Structures are given as C-alpha cells and as structure tokens.
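Known limitations

Files may contain more than one protein. Parsers should not assume a single record per file. Below, a two-record file is shown to illustrate correct handling: read the sequence, read the token line, then continue until end of file.
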Amino acid sequence: MRQELKALLAETDALIEEGKRFLEMNGIQYNLSKWVTLKEYTRRHGLESTSVVSNWISRGIVPPENIVVVSELNDLKLIKDIPYKETA
C-alpha cells in the first residue's frame, strides 16, 4: 500500500510539472516553450530591446494570431517563438 501511494504521488508530481508548462485560455492550450514573453523573445533571438518586437507587432510583421494577451497577468503579451524577420 505504501509503495502504491509513493507511485501515485510521483505520478501526480510529474503531471503537475508538465501542467506548469502550459497555459489555457478560452479553451485553447498554449505550450509555454513555444509562446514566450517579449523580453524572452528578445533574448532568444539576440535583438536590441523589446521595442523592436513591439514595433514588429505594430507594423504587422508579427501576425495577430501569433500574439496572446493574458489579461489575468496584467495584459502580459506572449509571442509565438518563431523567427519573424532576419536579424543580421
């Protein structure tokens, strides 16, 4: 019985950890390794500042379907982590 409880707790912990990597809004699940904050996108892609990414969003370089605004987190913007423009 004790081993079964340990196994169940380990499985539960693994599911919780996996669940932390996802965000669900309006019935859509977002994998947080593929959707990042503007700051993280800037870091990953070697850009000067988040202003560059904000400008891309304003100019339509980043399509609206690749932006998610999380109102529950003070309107935090997440961007799909794919290259949008050459940065050379």
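...continuing to the second record:
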Amino acid sequence: MDIKSLGKPIWNNCLGVKLCSLSLHKKELGEIQAEIRHIRDYNYATNIFAQNGARLGKDYFAIYPEEKRMFDFNIETSKNYRGKFRIGELMRLISIMEMIENKIKTMQLYSRESAVLFHAKYGFQSDIRQFSHRDNTLNAISKDTRFKDLAQKAKLLVKQLQECLTGAENRELCRLTSKLADEYINRVKSVSAKENPKFNQGFDMILHRETVLSQREKFNELFKRHGIDYKI
C-alpha cells in the first residue's frame, strides 16, 4: 500500500492522556472514522463509524496514567459487521497505539471464553487471579483429549489444589495455571486456525508493553494492512 494512501492518526491531549482520531478508506466500507472520547474520570471510548453514520464497533477502556496501565472493559464489533471487515482487529490496533503513545506498561482485561484466542492473537497472556477461574480452566484442559500431555499437567495441578493450605499456595497455583493455559492456547493455535480451546468460562488476560515492542514488526504490518500511517 502506498504510504500516501495511509491514514495518519491525529493526537489530542485530554487530561494528560493522548487520544487518537483517525480517518481511513476501506474498499468495502468507504471512508470510516475512528475517534476516542473521554467519558468520565479515567474512562474512554473508541467508536468507529462508517460513511453512512452506522457504528461499526466500540471499545470501552480506562487509562490510569500514574499507574502506567490500561483496562479494557469491552470491545465489540456491531452485529452486522462481525467476521467480515476486521473491525475488532482495528480497534485492538488503536488500543495498542494508545498504549505506546501514553507509555503504558500493561493492558488488562477479562476475556470471555469465546474471545480468548482473539486476545491471544495480539499478544495477551493468561493472568488468572480468581480461584474459580483457575479451577474451571484446569477442569477444561484436563478434559481435552486432543492434548493428553497438557491434560495430565492440569490433573497434577488439580491434585496440588486438593493439598493446598495457604493463600500463597493458592496464588502460586493461579500463576502455574496461567502458564499452562498459555501453553494450551498456543497448542490449539498450532493445530488449526479453526480449532478452539474448550474453556467453559473466561478469565483475566494481560498484554505487556515489552511484548508489543518485541512483536513490533507484526504490529507494524497490521497497521499498514489497515491503512494506518503508524509504526512502533
């Protein structure tokens, strides 16, 4: 794509936070507009609109500048545009630009079980904190007969849970479960793009700035593919 045809982000300062607005041309949709607005306190919203005024997607998130972290509450593509135009990916790229421009160290979110692979695609890792999420995750992996070695690891962790006596031990098992969940997610991805993890409940995930920087070539290619004049 010719660099002259790329849309350049416009940055505005709001309460010490840099917010992006962006105009892009999409072959299937024509001119689309993306804009981030301050809602209240630390809360912001990205909205993407088509040329006819239809909202294509929205992303509600918070930025905590002093803590150098973001929290993504909900990213959602409008029903009629799902699975066709990569609107979800565009919103994720905008959030990553926000992360870079505001020097954010981590972006956190709670992922529904159906969205874990989507978030993992953009560098998010499992960050399981709630014991119920841990237990459900281990149960799901232990029952997935596609990967017997990972199922065995999950069963061993379940056994350790039964012997767990302290809060510190419980938290350590959350960490180990997060590590196993990432291994499981990567295994599922390696088998087939159409395969899905068999989670029956979601859990917390986290994206580190260092991960984005280490994968800058991948993200820069995605920016270009979406017609965004931006490089990490």
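Parsers that stop after the first record will miss the second one. For reference, the second record is described as follows. The beta strands are 10-14, 17-26, 30-40, 43-49, 55-64, 69-77, 106-111, 125-126, 203-208.
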